[in-house]
Amino acid sequence: MTVRKPLALSLIALAIAAPGLASASALYHPAGGEVGMTTHPDHVQSNMSRGDVLRSVDVARKDGTLAILSRGGALPVKATGGSKTREQVQQEYLNMSAAEKQRIQELYGSGG
């Protein structure tokens, strides 16, 4: 009984401290109060050279993303695949089995 209590307390303390130890190399560290975090740029280790950074800034300047980001805008998402026409979607729905249509009805509701 006397050994279990100190062992349990030390395991609990380790479990509480483990996430804080893992974030030692992060940019942000938790802090009490209203702020909630502190910034430590010197803790981040970058594997990019200065030349790589300058090249990526040059590319962003040429394609317009630098201007968008500097104004706080969100970058547009590029389309990844071809889209279907309305007729293709309607034909796909008409070719579905009754069980598939029922499943879609359960997932998305009646739509009205």
Automatic annotation (TrEMBL):
Source species, domain of life: Bacteria
Keyword terms: Signal
Signal peptide range: 1-24
Name of the protein in question: DUF4148 domain-containing protein
Organism (species): Acidovorax soli
